[in-house]
Specification:
The chain has about 190 residues and is α/β, with parallel strands linked by helices. The strands form 2 sheets. The protein has a 6-stranded parallel beta sheet with strand order 1-2-3-6-7-8, covered by helices on one side. A two-stranded antiparallel sheet has the order 4-5.
Amino acid sequence: MTLAGSLSCLPPRFDAHAYPDERAESAAYLELAETLAEAGVDLLVLEMMQETRHAPLACAAARAVGLPWWLGVSCRLGAGADLVGFDFPLVPLATCLDVLLPLEPAAVAVMHSPVTAVVPALTTIRTRWGGPLGAYPEVGDGRHSTVGPGELAAEAREWLAAGARIVGGCCGTTPEHVGTLGRACSGEPKT
């Protein structure tokens, strides 16, 4: 069994003005990564990476502890169908990737992103990076699913065709989603 620890670089209280100075922020990410490593996790998963100022600090901290780490980028389709940060519509996904991929994640996943953004994001990532890909988008608002289990499984087949090898779901995902997704990805018959 692999134990994973997660880091996110969303602003404190979701207030972009509440970030500490860069040195303190870097030290906090490193302390969290070291604490998780000392607790015995085998893998660090960095989620909601979607901009170019704070995300690199979190990624650098994960890299510094020497554990494998996965990069989870969050994006959506912005104006003109361009991929942009989920919460940062002025940051193109491509720009974010160009800053974060040199930090050498073990895998890159499109996460907490609308289902419609997954295949375009996987395609964008693949043009810049040759390692393992994943997808676990949001399928609801945390209380209600807007994408059904069968629809998620059908989408996952598209992600697999686009190169993803790690699949799942984020907000709104239920045990039924996971079971249906597992059966679809393993080739088991639907029940």
